[in-house]
Design a protein that fits this description.
single chain; alpha+beta; two-stranded parallel sheet; two-stranded antiparallel sheet; 4 strands
Length: about 60
């Protein structure tokens, strides 16, 4: 059972997540030779103040 975890900045719409979930599921089914029922996609929203790159918080970019 493939599990794909996607971390995103907070702010994506339900529709965007649904479209992304379908695209990820389709890719996993085609490449990993599994079924949609066995494929799990987990979205985790992360606030920009909880994400940094090159020592700078994303909320400061």
């Amino acid at each position: 059972m493939p599990i794909v975890k996607v971390e995103l900045w907070t702010g994506r719409t339900k529709e965007q997540k649904a479209e992304l979930a379908q695209a990820i599921t389709d890719a996993v089914v085609n490449i990993a030779r599994t079924t949609p029922d066995e494929t799990i996609v987990i979205f985790q929203d992360v606030d920009k103040e909880n994400w940094s790159k090159a020592g700078k918080l994303a909320s400061e970019w």
